[in-house]
Design a protein that fits this description.
The complex is a heterotrimer of chains A (about 450), B (about 475) and C (about 130). Chain A is about 40% helix and about 15% strand. Chain A has 15 helices and 16 strands. In chain A, the strands form 5 sheets. A 7-stranded mixed β-sheet of chain A has the order 2-10-9-8-7-3-4, sandwiched between helices. In chain A, strands 13-16-15 form a 3-stranded antiparallel β-sheet, with helices on one face. Chain C has about 130 residues and is α+β, with helices and mostly antiparallel strands. Chain C has helices at about 30-35, 80-85, 90, 115-125; strands at about 10, 15-20, 20-25, 40, 50, 55-60, 65-70, 70-80, 100-110. Chain C is globular. Chain C has a 6-stranded antiparallel β-sheet with strand order 1-2-3-9-8-5. In chain C, strands 4-6-7 form a 3-stranded antiparallel β-sheet. The chains are: A alpha/beta (about 450), B alpha/beta (about 475), C alpha+beta (about 130). Chains A and B meet through helix 1, helix 3, helix 4, helix 5 and helix 6 of A and helix 1, helix 2, helix 3, helix 4 and helix 5 of B.
Chain lengths: ~450, ~475, ~130
């Protein structure tokens, strides 16, 4: 067996004797007999690091890694600058706990403060928390932030990623709140329905939209904001952070709360996690925001320093009256996002966004030329939907060539995605495959 | 030290992205008016910035970290190596099931091992943290009662010693929280439990050993009583390191549990996350589990699933680390974790309790709680002061002021990965601080003196929050 | 400056001052002293109905939160919004830093005079 226990068996026994126990049985004798596990655990005995490495690497080898990826739908294949992992994996960051002891945790605290600032810059919001689990759970917490005694119903666009909607539903099952889905028309939120639904419901707390939406479309957020605010509800925008390198910000649009999946900011695909939940809001919502916050202050000698703050909102103090049970953040993922944003800078972020959207438009054109029809005639960012006579056949043909095609949707449609990692050559190959197959 | 924004110089930066090989085409929708004020900084300068931040952070690798309730054990390097394999990191979560056989095998293997360790039948890895696992477990309980039409069960019982997440999770799951008292021994007051059980009881949440580090000897009776009343028993796995391989929650009456892979299973805390909080359950609850998994080559969701608590399958790369750790330790190594965690805690307790009274003077499990109430009264030195004094000895302080049922509490959890010398050194530090408490209490209250930053104004930070950098160069009011 | 002898007190450490038929509610000097530096208050909204014995809001210190228990039943006519921005006012002058004004007072718990309250605090401390 392998072990990380430093003390030898002899040392262990000596320590036991020193504090008055005969052996380990003696140390555990206060545990009632009927509670003790007496069998042998039924899984393999321990192995050397060398053997473990071979086994787990073998599992990794059993996956198919695609080098040409045209699938997004909530997880995006972006370039991860070398700085990101090199810096974020420094062991001081990696092996630290939550920075409760501020005097020896300024590095972690400051990095979170910097993250909060960058997220505010990106979204145009006043306040960002220190991050949450992922984009979907952040959306669910964002919705909960808008509840008060008079407003409890959550409205959510059908054009929001169904995974996000499902998490919002599950959280609402817990909190006993009502969720109403606003239908989509032509790939985006049905504004007429939205207006009618919200205006007919004084209990409407919020409307959650996705920007760009699940179909890749950049919806008319200004108009949505005016409808939502006109009905006395709050606007929550679930954003793609790379798209915010170009698009009008939620702050400019007048959103009240922003949530989003931070995975595109240098986190890689990692089969779905760990990712990064972005949550930001206007100053008005400061006391309602969920999760950790780092604030600036001074020490006893007047030096600038950082602390976890507004903690009385949180579970360890407010217990069952806390608005959420969250007691951690994805600190290391937030750190990666900060390093990513610092590495690419304002120009690099805009460049990444420009590359993504330009390439997506090129891909759409080529696919159209090859015979696939764009399902919606709308402005999109880096994802779009096409009809397809036989999506299974096309995707299988692409897979043969080592290409992960778009995500198959209902009715044979496909949701395509292009990022800066897709080359013209690769996109031409996809289009050529379409011609071959049909 | 400078913020990264204060190191930024317009026009500087790093070259990451290529020229565009197709025509530039932007969406014809409103675009942002101003670029975000992100740092403009060279790689060298940025690297140094973060190196400096790293020097002002403290991880397990920097030294002893006996933070009670957090299980700050060694984070093995092989875990990191395995979690960085491109065969895992480059897999899209929506790839076809037949292209993710390795991920599926990793998840299934980990599930089998963890179910065996906990005595559970099934498990979801969707929850991203311990509290998230609690919430998930409570939703399973809620779905179970609902499926039986037994919706009058509106209360979750939580002991007063519980972590704050327990009542918060119960409230989030729509339950009324009923707090029951601890007895003089720090464990559940059986009379108070009995008085609160009834047809309104949905379940009990329990950490065992509990937050004062004691194993509840009435455990079999407790879970029997809850079941008799028609409730379910939830096991908070925060303290599993104390009994792993020695006691299985599933054998002692628990129906649903969560684990903290970032505590018991050695995955790094990362300065506050990401963790992983898988939620395990007995067979009769498995049909409610959230999320999808690959079964027989198809992505499948449980028939009466509560839905999803994260977007995909949970923190997969954290799971890879835990799997690596378990394959390394193996079925023979796992019980050694608990034995040595408990030994190390008792060793420290025994060698300190003459100076620092323990809250409950008995054999502890993997952690123990000292109460500085008398020291505080007599010398006006608080648990906080002693914690801060430890910083000057290069030791991360224990957990302070928790559990709430002990006044001036310091909760010490050494873990099994510390050697005797490390423990002896910490014991010597505690004893030296005690000497200072007697001789010059005011010097203890003035600590720390060796850290780069001294005690911070938390009141000012909370009264007038400054939560982001002010680019205008003027301080917010 | 308000004389602490003037208002009446609840056993949960709120003070109550009569202003015609209406009442003004705050927390006692003893309460603010034991709570320590306050960093935020959560107040009810105007027109909210208060119930005697139930929380009307809470006060936060850095590491704790404590309910403010309403000593009366009635309807809130005004809240002291200044406290939201400057909770330190409560620590500085608890008798000036009122929380809410209440009208239509239906029910009031048995309140203590200032002297009785001093006595009560002494007993509690012992």
């Amino acid at each position: 067996m392998g072990t990380y226990i430093p003390n030898t068996k002899e040392e262990q026994l000596k320590m036991l004797h020193e504090i008055g126990y005969k052996d380990f049985d003696d140390l555990f004798k206060h545990i009632p007999e009927e509670a003790r596990f007496k069998g042998t655990l039924n899984f393999p005995k321990g192995k050397s690091e060398c053997e473990v490495s071979a086994i787990v690497s073998g599992m990794a080898d059993d996956n198919k890694v695609f080098h040409k990826i045209f699938r997004g739908a909530g997880a995006y294949n972006h370039y991860v600058p070398a700085t990101v992992n090199a810096i974020a994996n420094k062991e001081e960051f990696l092996t630290a706990y939550t920075p409760y002891q501020a005097e020896i945790s300024q590095g972690i605290l400051q990095s979170i403060f910097e993250y909060q600032t960058m997220i505010c810059e990106l979204t145009g919001m006043d306040i960002s928390n220190a991050s949450l689990y992922d984009g979907a759970s952040a959306a669910a917490e964002a919705c909960a932030m808008t509840h008060d005694r008079k407003h409890s119903t959550i409205y959510i666009s059908h054009a929001v990623d169904h995974r996000v909607r499902e998490v919002v539903d599950t959280y609402s099952f817990g909190r006993n709140t009502k969720v109403v889905v606003v239908p989509e028309v032509d790939g985006e939120t049905d504004l007429k329905a939205l207006k009618e639904m919200l205006e007919g419901d004084p209990s409407a707390a919020c409307f959650l939209m996705q920007y760009p939406n699940f179909n890749g479309i950049v919806e008319d957020a200004d108009q949505i904001a005016s409808i939502v605010h006109g009905a006395g509800a709050q606007l929550i925008m679930s954003v793609n952070p790379i798209a915010l390198g170009l698009l009008k910000t939620p702050g400019e649009i007048g959103a009240d709360i922003v949530c989003g999946e931070g995975q595109p900011l240098g986190l890689g695909l990692g089969y779905g996690g760990p990712y990064l939940g972005i949550l930001a809001c206007t100053k008005k919502n400061m006391r309602k925001i969920i999760g950790r916050l780092v604030g600036e202050t001074t020490d006893s000698q007047g030096e600038r320093g950082f602390v976890l703050t507004l903690q009385a909102r949180e579970q360890h103090i407010r217990r069952d009256k806390a608005s959420s049970n969250v007691c951690s953040n994805q600190a290391q993922c937030a750190l990666k996002a900060s390093i990513y944003l610092a590495t690419v800078g304002p120009n690099g972020l805009k460049q990444a966004a420009t590359l993504c959207t330009s390439k997506a438009h090129y891909l759409a054109e080529q696919l159209e030329k090859a015979g696939l029809k764009l399902t919606y005639d709308k402005e999109f960012f880096h994802e779009f939907v096409t009809d397809c006579p036989d999506s299974g056949k096309l995707l299988a043909a692409l897979e043969e060539k080592g290409i992960l095609g778009g995500l198959p949707l209902e009715d044979g449609r496909i949701l395509w995605c292009a990022t800066e990692l897709c080359t013209k050559e690769d996109m031409d190959e996809v289009a050529a495959t379409v011609k071959e197959v049909f | 030290m400078k913020l990264i924004f204060e190191r930024s110089v317009p026009g500087r930066g790093q070259d990451i992205f290529p020229e565009c090989d197709v025509d530039i085409r932007l969406p014809e929708t409103p675009l942002r008016e101003e670029a975000p004020k992100l740092p403009e900084i060279s790689e060298n300068e940025m690297g140094r910035h973060y190196t400096q931040l790293a020097k002002e952070a403290r991880g397990v690798n920097d030294g002893f970290y006996p933070l009670g309730s957090c299980t700050m054990k060694h984070n093995p390097r092989i875990n990191e190596a395995m979690a960085s394999l491109p065969g895992f990191t480059n897999v899209h979560p929506l790839q076809p099931a037949d292209t993710v056989k390795g991920c599926t095998e990793a998840i299934d293997t980990l599930r089998n091992i963890l179910c065996e360790i906990t005595g559970m039948d099934d498990m979801t890895f969707q929850p991203a943290a311990g509290a998230h696992g609690e919430f998930t477990g409570l939703l399973l309980i809620k779905a179970y009662h609902k499926s039986r039409g037994d919706e009058g069960r509106t209360e979750i019982i939580v002991p007063d010693s519980a972590h704050g997440t327990n009542p918060a999770s119960a409230a989030m799951a729509g339950y009324k929280v009923v707090e029951i008292k601890s007895n003089d021994h720090g464990t559940i007051d059986m009379d108070d439990l009995k008085a609160h059980l009834g047809p309104q009881t949905a379940g009990l949440m329990l950490t065992n050993p509990n937050t004062v580090g004691l194993f509840d000897e009435n455990i079999m009776e407790i879970t029997r009583l809850v079941h008799e009343a028609g409730g379910l028993c939830y096991y908070d796995g925060a303290n599993l390191n104390a009994v792993i391989g020695m006691v299985r929650p599933g054998d002692i009456g628990f129906d649903v549990i969560h684990l903290n892979l970032h505590k018991t299973f050695s995955t790094p805390h990362g300065g506050g996350g990401p963790g992983s909080g898988p939620c395990g359950c007995k067979d009769f609850l498995a049909k409610f589990l959230p999320g999808k998994r690959v079964i027989d080559g198809e992505y499948t969701q449980a028939p009466e699933s509560i839905g999803c608590v994260t977007g995909f399958y949970g923190n997969f790369l954290v799971m890879v680390r835990a799997l690596t750790y378990l394959l390394f330790n193996g079925s023979d190594g796992v019980p050694e974790l608990a034995k040595n965690a408990v030994l190390n805690a008792n060793y420290m307790q025994e060698k300190l309790k003459d100076l620092y009274p323990v809250a409950y003077d008995t054999t502890c499990m993997h952690e123990f709680v000292m109460s500085l109430e008398s020291i505080h009264k007599e010398k006006n030195v608080s648990a906080l002061d002693v914690a801060k004094a430890l910083l000057d000895f290069g030791i991360h302080p224990p957990t302070m002021y928790f559990p709430l049922i002990v006044d001036e509490a310091l909760m010490v959890e050494p873990t099994e990965t510390e050697s005797r010398e490390v423990l002896d050194n910490a014991i010597a530090a505690f004893r030296a601080i005690y000497k200072k408490i007697i001789e010059s209490p005011e010097s203890v209250a003035a600590s720390p003196v060796t850290t780069p930053i001294k005690r911070l104004d938390e009141v000012g930070a909370a009264r007038h929050p400054i939560l982001k950098y002010d680019f205008s160069g003027e301080k917010a009011e | 400056m308000i004389d602490p002898k003037e208002p009446k007190y609840s056993k949960s450490h709120e003070w109550v001052r009569y202003d015609g038929d209406d009442v003004v509610i705050g927390i006692s000097d003893y309460a603010q002293e034991s709570l320590g530096d306050l960093v935020f208050v959560n107040l009810p909204e105007v027109d909210d109905e208060l119930t005697v014995g139930e929380a009307l809001g809470d006060v936060e210190s850095v590491k704790a939160v404590s309910d403010i228990i309403s000593p009366v039943s009635g309807k809130v006519t005004e809240i002291n919004e200044a406290l939201l921005d400057s909770p330190e006012m409560i620590n500085e002058d608890p008798y000036d830093a009122w929380f809410v004004k209440v009208t239509d007072v239906q029910e009031t718990e048995d309140l203590l005079s200032a002297d009785e309250y001093d006595e009560f605090v002494k007993e509690e401390e012992a």
